[in-house]
Predict the structure.
Amino acid sequence: MNLEDITTVKSILSKPQKIVIIPHKNPDGDAIGSCLGLNGFLISQGHDSTVIAPNDYPKFLKWMPGNESILNFEKENSQSKKCLEEATVVFTLDFNDLSRVGQLESVLKEKEATFIMIDHHQQPSGYATVTYSDVRMSSTCEMVYNFIEYLSEIDKIDEEIATNLYTGIMTDTGSFKYRSTSSRTHRVIADLIDRGAHNMEIHQRVYDTNSPSRLHLLGVALSNMVILPEYSTAYITLSQEELDKHDFKKGDTEGFVNYGLTLEGIIFAVIFIENKEEGIIKISFRSIGDFSVNEFARKHFNGGGHDNAAGGRSDMSIKETTKQFVTLLESYKNQLCS
């Protein structure tokens, strides 16, 4: 954030505000962690603050401090709309275009309020009064830590805020192994531990709680993996029938795509997941090194994200989608195999 933005935010927050904080649709650990962390901070500053999630999110995130106060826009629509009507300030976290919030998009576009964006994805839209955007950041949670520090209120980070911010940084960095994890990230993490975040417990709550059905689904995913050594690529498919057979719950496929990158010689991994309710194939892309899955997803699959982690979608069948994907790889062979 530049000095002008910091001054603007300090002015906005200098008097009590009614605030709504919104993550993207299908929020992940970074989205929920950053929203809850910021929410705790704003409440400590005397503001009336509420987190409204566009829809539900995985069970493995619902232990986080303050989770019980989050409103689900789909399930608690009237209460959510009332909060939005009264809000004077709207924070949007971990996304940079209003198309990422599902049914909330039309409500936000009509909303007259001060919008503040905190996000680390590429190519932000210009809807916010204050835009804090930095693609070099490991996570939006690290940016929320910085945001609080810019306001000279770092001592307001208590155990609950620290826990939420640690969780989001941990999940969005793949437990601190992605390239976006900087020395600054580790210093922030160290401070969050000092302020009460219990790192081992957080890791166990997020990663070490499996159901038998999820592990069986992982087995199906791995058996479906197709390895294309000529393109340094591996991909996984999961049909709706396979998801239903294994009692799929939101979040059950989290991390499945990364298994492809554990193979020697593979730098590009993808998972294609059928969603018949929405009539689409949801796609997650991951890469190692300089191959930009953000550019690949934007160009071919209506998506985007980061250089090494992105998402996309297809309106074709899973068979047609994977056929198109494999065909596309030929034009990227030099990048993938250099």
